[in-house]
Structure formats: structure tokens, C-alpha cells
Write a structure and sequence with these properties.
This protein is an alpha+beta fold and about 160 residues long. The chain contains 4 helices and 7 strands. Strand 2 and strand 3 form a beta hairpin. The longest helix has 13 residues.
């Protein structure tokens, strides 16, 4: 398959709702702040991560997507939770029910975020729990993931 999985599926179903698998990662710095990205598509703050490609494991997706969106090589430390009940609509009209594997990761390379940008990431920044609570542009899904992370209590069945 020459095109990516999402493009291939979308060529068959258009904008109809489909289930897509994603992997995301929480990277905390020495002060306990977590790294978020300002997304290029939705202009909202989010946990770095993205869609799984055919033949990829969730940990491989986590590492690849985190690097693509932050420029930081990471190693997954533990699976935090799997979230399955959130629906999203993208700016282009694509509808999905997301299945998200959320990992806690550690950086394998130096963390240099000041000048990192690309089509997917407009800005990177570390946020405290308090700063995250004050963000207006954070999806319900990411609010839940971060709340569970900071409480270190992960409820199954999401």
C-alpha cells in the first residue's frame, strides 16, 4: 500500500464515522510538568500522539508519532490506559470513534522544544496540573487523560 492507512480507508468510506487506533504519550519533565502540543489542524492543545499504521504495534506508533510531533525520541515506560468511547470530527469533516493507547514515556534524546514546529505542531510547551486546568482549548478526552495521569488513578472502561 503506497498511501497511508487513513487515506486508504477514507478513499473507501469518505467522511463517515470509523474506528481508528491511536497511541499517545505523556512526557513529564523534572518539575512534573507534562509536554503538550498546540495542534496545527484544530489549533488546540493536546497530548502528542497519532494514528496507527497497518503492521505497527501501539508502542511503535507511540514512538513514531511522538517523534514526528515533537522531535523527541522516547521510550514507553508503561501503558497508562486505553480510551475507547470518544468521538471526534476533524476540520475536513472526517468522523471517528477513537481507540487510544496512552503511554507514559521517557526521553531518549535531549529535550529541545523552543524552536520545534511543523504542519502538525505549532508549538510545544510543558504545563503544570494547574496550568492545564486553566487551558480553554483542551478536548474532553485529553482533559480526562491528564486528570487520571496527575491523580495516578486510571479508570477502566473509558
Amino acid at each position: 500500500m503506497k498511501e497511508d492507512y487513513i487515506s486508504y480507508i477514507r478513499s473507501k468510506v469518505g467522511h463517515d464515522k470509523i474506528i481508528l487506533n491511536f497511541a499517545g504519550a505523556i512526557l513529564a519533565n523534572e518539575k512534573g510538568k507534562v509536554l503538550l502540543q498546540l495542534r496545527g489542524d484544530k489549533k488546540t492543545w493536546a497530548i502528542p500522539g497519532g494514528a496507527m499504521e497497518l503492521g505497527e504495534s501501539s508502542t511503535d506508533t507511540c514512538k513514531r508519532e511522538f517523534f514526528e510531533e515533537t522531535g523527541i525520541e522516547v521510550e514507553p515506560l508503561r501503558l497508562l490506559n486505553v480510551y475507547t468511547h470518544f468521538d471526534e470530527e476533524y476540520p475536513n469533516g472526517d468522523q471517528v470513534q477513537t481507540l487510544v493507547f496512552l503511554y507514559e514515556v521517557r526521553a531518549k534524546t535531549k529535550i529541545e522544544i523552543d524552536d520545534f514546529t511543523n504542519d502538525e505542531t505549532l508549538q510545544l510547551k510543558f504545563f503544570s496540573k494547574k496550568e492545564i486546568a486553566e487551558l480553554e482549548s483542551l478536548s474532553q478526552k485529553h482533559q480526562l487523560m491528564l486528570k487520571e495521569y496527575f491523580c495516578n488513578h486510571f479508570q477502566m472502561g473509558w
